[in-house]
Amino acid sequence: MIKASALYISLIISMLIVLICGSVLSVGYIYRMENKKQERRDRLEANLASGMAIVLEESFKPDTLLQTSLYGAEADSVLLDKRAWGVFELGLVKAWEVTDTLQKAFLIGAVMKDTLKVLELSDEDRPLSISGKSLIKGTAFLPKSGIKAAYVENATYTDKTLVYGSIKDSGRELPEPDAAILKQARSLIEEMTGDDKVTGSLDKDSTQHSFFKPVRKIHLGVENADLSGFTVKGNVMISCDTTLILDAASKLDKVILIAPHVRIAEGFKGNIQVIATDSITIGNKVQLDYPSALLVLKNDTAKFQVRIDIGKDCSIAGQVLAYEKTRSLLMPMVVIGEGTQIKGEVYVKGYLNLGKKSGVQGSVSLIRFMARTASSLYENYLIDVQLNRPALSRYYLSSKLLNKETLQNKVLCWLW
Questions:
Q1: Where is the chain membrane-spanning (predicted)?
Q2: Rounded to two decimals, what is the model's pTM?
Q3: Which of 77, 110, 143 is the last residue of a domain?
Q4: Domain count, the chain
């Protein structure tokens, strides 16, 4: 005789066995699905890396959009895109399988071909004079008349070594920047400020625009466009017909600014590229993070001197360029204020005025130095300034604007 309680216990045990078996099957199924999901993600990441390697190749030219299968299978579909973004190149890679998608946007940097050059001064049959607590460290391309110590305002050169590095002869003309990038920059100026420009507005609180979307081009239809208090981030170009104004309350990241004159007030911090046709004026204690760029491109018909004026105690990481195609009497001028540090490259097809205690960690190419003291103006003099190529980070990447012969590209920074 079997008690009824035994049957009750048997039912409970059976239910437990069913629950345990069901749980084991569920765990196995979930594990299998997660494993397949991880395998698919790993495959997409590998495809993404392969797509990035293709976009970084020199043979993959800008303004190229390619949708392809890496290995001839539907699971290996990628979209590859390369386009100009100011002086840099922008890479976009997307890999997908069914509904799963991975994508990356990045700026492409050019590896500097000459990692030793600190100075290239055009040969105008006059020597370079160095005075005070100045420093030149790296390979210097100088006029055949050489370099000499000079006595300026009751002070002479405080060191015995004139150049800490090798000295080579410079040429009459500076090496030209990349013509294609200059043409692209000029076309942006014409597009953003020409008769067919499209006016627009910015959100006062914040404007963020992904690089995976079409570029947002905004022409501010006001006499002087004031961006005080605006936050703008991403795939945005802003232009105006006269003066574009930024101050410490402006927050800009990876944005391109285009105007005849751009004025950046004291205390501004951001990451921008500026393309101007007249001048760029920067106040004191401005910080432009890497990779920023300041370009003044003189029109062939302009009868005035284009300028970049940088205030005191600024920090600029990137490229500074003042350019005219045909040399004129009013050559472009770049003025770098006292205590300001440039981390990157300075190219001036004209005059460069370096204030005392200023410096360039990187390279400088120019036609003529100008040095102003309280009583005099000196040509081809360095007074209490430092040009130090080894001080530039070994991870610094340039653009093809000043390194057109480079054949090696790398990811400069990630975008969104």
A1: 6-31
A2: 0.89
A3: 110
A4: 2
